[in-house]
Write a structure and sequence with these properties.
The structure is a homodimer of 434-residue chains.
Chain A (H helix, E strand, L loop, with lengths): L3 E7 L3 H21 L2 E8 L13 E3 L3 H4 L6 E4 L5 H12 L4 E3 L2 H13 L6 E2 L10 H8 L5 E7 L2 H13 L3 H10 L8 H4 L2 H14 L10 E2 L7 H9 L2 E11 L10 E12 L11 E8 L3 E8 L3 H21 L13 E2 L6 E2 L1 E8 L4 H11 L4 E6 L8 E8 L2 E2 H12 L9 E5 L4
Parallel strand pairs in A: 1-2, 1-4, 2-3, 4-5, 5-6, 8-10, 10-13, 10-19
Antiparallel strand pairs in A: 7-9, 7-11, 9-10, 11-12, 14-18, 15-17, 15-19, 16-17
Chain lengths: 434, 434
Amino acid sequence: MANVVRLGIAGLGTVAQGVLNILQHNHAIILARSGVDLRVTRVASRAAKRDVDLLGATFSTQLDTLYNSDDVDIVVELIGGETTARDLIEASLAANKPVVTANKAVVANFGNQLLASNQHVALKFEAAVAGAIPILQAIQQGLVANRFEHVVGIINGTCNYILTAMQQSGTAFDVALSAAQELGYAEADPTFDVEGIDAAHKLAILLALAYDTQFNFDDIYIEGISKISPADIIYAQELGYCIKHVGIARRSAGSDDDNDGVIEARVHPVLLPEHQLLANVNDVANAILIKSDAAGHTLFSGPGAGGAATASAVLSDVVNVAQDLLRGGEGPTTQNRAPVTIVPIAQVRSPHYLRIPTQDQPGVFAAVAQALSNHEISIEAAIQKQPSSVDEIVDIVILTGIATDAAIQAALGEVQQLPQMAGEIARIRVETLE
Amino acid sequence: MANVVRLGIAGLGTVAQGVLNILQHNHAIILARSGVDLRVTRVASRAAKRDVDLLGATFSTQLDTLYNSDDVDIVVELIGGETTARDLIEASLAANKPVVTANKAVVANFGNQLLASNQHVALKFEAAVAGAIPILQAIQQGLVANRFEHVVGIINGTCNYILTAMQQSGTAFDVALSAAQELGYAEADPTFDVEGIDAAHKLAILLALAYDTQFNFDDIYIEGISKISPADIIYAQELGYCIKHVGIARRSAGSDDDNDGVIEARVHPVLLPEHQLLANVNDVANAILIKSDAAGHTLFSGPGAGGAATASAVLSDVVNVAQDLLRGGEGPTTQNRAPVTIVPIAQVRSPHYLRIPTQDQPGVFAAVAQALSNHEISIEAAIQKQPSSVDEIVDIVILTGIATDAAIQAALGEVQQLPQMAGEIARIRVETLE
């Protein structure tokens, strides 16, 4: 009995059921591996009790039973949503109960306050980023000795599924989205996923841990994938690239050598070189590529969602916290998280892919090239298809050299004024991952 | 000063220099992230002191100064070799000093005794497997709640570099090996790497941690890559596969549901489906793919060697041990590692790739098919090239269904007796990774 640690679980949805299911089947494995004898003593959910084996735990519809009870050592918050979850986490920490949560929105939006006001009680959230992949542990422990150059993650499975389907079968965004919805990979209202908000929540967390800083959700630049066309995917392939939706945190090229320098934080589609491992992470899988000063390029891939996969990450945190509880004593205290300056997107520098639909008239490529040149943007590669009929619209496709977003915006403003323009310009940033 | 933990480093080679270099540059990062203030108080190496900044540490040619001194909290063993390193680890643990080592040979060969006789003093060896990749932490912490179906790793960078070169430029093994030697990716005597011994050391460690069992180096089946021909690589590509050298640990299909059931443990070349992420891990990179019951397929990739990358993993262990030291108290004790039964290779079941060089005579394919059929081996796919001239030798290439190694051996024994045989048969196991 000396190694017993008692859990109070909030929620009874798919992740909570996954936790109960794992504990039912793998309790002995966890004990053998970690020395921790996990018991679920309480489950609380404001919805009525479902037909789930609670492993002998007491059920209540009152969440406060979790943090007001002496028979709970760790509160596991799996109710989702924001307000109630945040209140539960806050009350549990205040009651000196360590908390494990899978709630990325709460951590991204309220993590600064929650962590700052409860420094001596653990709050862990491995499951909030990239599901089963133990990426936060990798950043905080496995790569603890490293300064991070960049963290680039495919961190939304819905976007990755849609882009993979578009790439592999040439379908349009709407068609791929419908397929994702039918398979349960996208919500009825997909905005949260396809417009990048979910990815930004996760990036805010990755950024805070990788750069030892506060959570900066409000400062993250966010773009989704709804404007990606099949033509862009085909042109990208011709150029040797793959289109993925990623979150990027990066020490800015202009920043000084301090780790708390200036950081880029942005979520948007990118062209990745097709030979890069990250470009080959397909379907609903997630992956995070980290470039560090000592460890070089490391990549972590796996399922980013699902009850069992998320529960795996939740229990990893639970075991860590439980081991510390059993060990007793006060761990070393870390410094408060300092704020960091996020580079405005206008100043972010990268190569760009541009697709410019024009009427097929002499001089149009020269005019586009002149507009780019006016803003000191070089052309690294270009594709101009021969029109198959008279009066056809022709796509001018260009890979630019490295330029700021502001310069690209200004140049495209000029291009848009050209009389030969025949549609909306597509522009996607390019990440070489070097 | 409350958070100071003092290191005694044994060795002054590239990894030790990497550790000193990281501590020189990233000391503040490590402190901010972990709360641990690491100081190197002693360095000992039996070779004379090199021109390296020891960060104020006392140098000695006597290794016993590390574990006999009161000013060392953790001994970091980086001298390599087996006997001296093992003695140092043993003496340090006996002196109640936790040890961090990068020495895979010592852990694979002597881990059972070292861990069994020192259960209350930490012995950590993250750097012993796959360099910078925090794979042991992933198994023990990030995926702690999972039962592992299989662990398949590209865990020898030399082999991966050679096979990648053979695939990308069509060179023969000898040529690719020479190139690897020129680049410093292979030793002058490459046997240890290209014949799979190094990979087997690492697999023994992965297996012990993933299956909560003892180290089983002596029972691991080992095959290297020196017999892989450019023809095999080309045929594999035609069939949609990539040839990689891997270590595999797997719960045997025949084993019962207990985690300590019967395990496969083998190191050899395999054909991997080319769309699998693991098949796209190239050059000197390492990667480990884990299939778990809850977390599904997770993959961890990064540099498998190099002073800085290995030092990154060493310091990750150091920080973990240091945090426990600062916390004080006794952690939960885990069970003793139980022995496990390793399946004899003859009983291991998998599909096979076969390349059978024959004279181009009527009936030869039928005779080969008959020999396979005699041992209930099905043919899933076959390639038979038309000869470009009379009397040419023709390769019959076959992908078999799943069969035991014993059945394949017996069938190939019959094939070898056919009068039309014109050379040595190549056979490589196929891993679908499903």
